[in-house]
Design goal:
- With about 270 residues, this protein is of the alpha/beta class.
- It has 2 domains: about 1-45, no CATH class; about 50-75 and about 130-274, HAD superfamily/HAD-like (Rossmann fold), CATH 3.40.50.
- Helices cover about 40% and strands about 25% of the residues.
- The strands form 2 sheets. The chain has an 8-stranded mixed sheet with strand order 3-10-9-8-4-5-6-7, sandwiched between helices. A two-stranded antiparallel sheet has the order 1-2.
- The model has no long low-confidence stretch (mean pLDDT about 90).
């Protein structure tokens, strides 16, 4: 607080959030948001934090990335392992997530390398390699119980996103579709590409559909999520790459996904643990 007040900005309130005793709530009446964020980041490293310009309440819309956000893997990297080229594809994935490569070009290159991989590898990968991120189902279920519409939007594939969405309770899925012929991947994709622009468009479309006053929350971890994170009322970076973290209104660096519920003031006794 002293570091904020030294800038001449008034801290109108400070205290532990009622019902969420692990959460410190600060109310700053003025000041530059970027500078306030920098001060908080410097004093609370490896923290879970949300900085908001308007009152914080449970959102009407939740849009989330999938890989490394709602699940503990990058699906295409794990699928590549069945083709014996995980290191090669994972290196491209990492550069794309860091924002160093064009997303569509990187996606098509990686999918092309999977040509002739049996379709059965997808089912085996799902069964053996894909697990929800801790707290994912509780987060989705609790938000839905409060009237929030939930959307999973990913630069990954329907082959993974559809079963993940069903498991976690998401109501809509937007993803890419692998082309499969004669029981094997062709190395191509069917239809348009779900990239950063599509992710943002989905968020704006769903917000508009919900009507005036609808608030939105977006979560993600990579550069492809930045436009969606910036367009949401609240954009949270989950254990994210540097560029995504820097673009967000807050971040989860320490806790699991249920930390989002605490930041929105939803006490543990009100969580839905299906």
């Amino acid at each position: 607080m002293e570091a904020i007040e030294e800038r001449g900005w008034e801290v109108a309130g400070a205290g532990m959030l009622e019902g969420c005793e692990d959460v410190l709530e600060l109310e700053v009446l003025e000041g530059d948001p970027a500078e306030v964020r920098g001060i908080l980041d410097a004093h609370f490293p490896d923290s879970d934090l949300l900085l908001s310009l308007h009152p914080i309440a449970a959102p009407r819309l939740f849009v989330s990335d999938m890989d490394s956000t709602m699940i503990q893997a990058e699906c295409i990297d794990e699928l590549a392992d069945f083709a014996g080229i995980k290191d090669q594809i994972a290196a491209i994935t990492e550069r794309a997530m860091q924002g160093e490569l064009d997303f569509e070009a990187a996606l098509r290159e990686r999918v092309g390398l999977l040509r002739d991989l049996p379709e059965a590898a997808i089912h085996q990968c799902l069964a053996e390699r894909i697990a929800p991120m801790p707290g994912a189902r509780t987060l989705v279920s609790t938000l839905k119980a409060r009237g929030c519409h939930t959307v999973l939007v990913t630069g990954g594939f329907h082959s993974f996103a559809d079963p993940v969405a069903e498991q976690l309770g998401f109501e809509r899925v937007v993803a890419n579709r692998l082309e499969i012929r004669d029981g094997a991947l062709t190395g191509g994709l069917v239809g348009g590409i779900t990239d950063s622009g599509v992710k943002k468009a989905v968020l704006l479309e769903e917000t508009a559909r919900l009507g005036e006053g609808a608030t939105s929350l977006a979560t993600g971890d990579g550069a492809n999520d930045i436009p969606m994170i910036e367009a949401a009322h609240w954009g949270l970076a989950y254990r994210a790459k540097h560029k995504a973290r820097a673009a967000a209104d807050g971040w989860i660096d320490r806790g699991d996904l249920t930390a989002i519920l605490l930041l929105f003031g939803i006490p543990r006794e009100e969580w839905v643990n299906d």
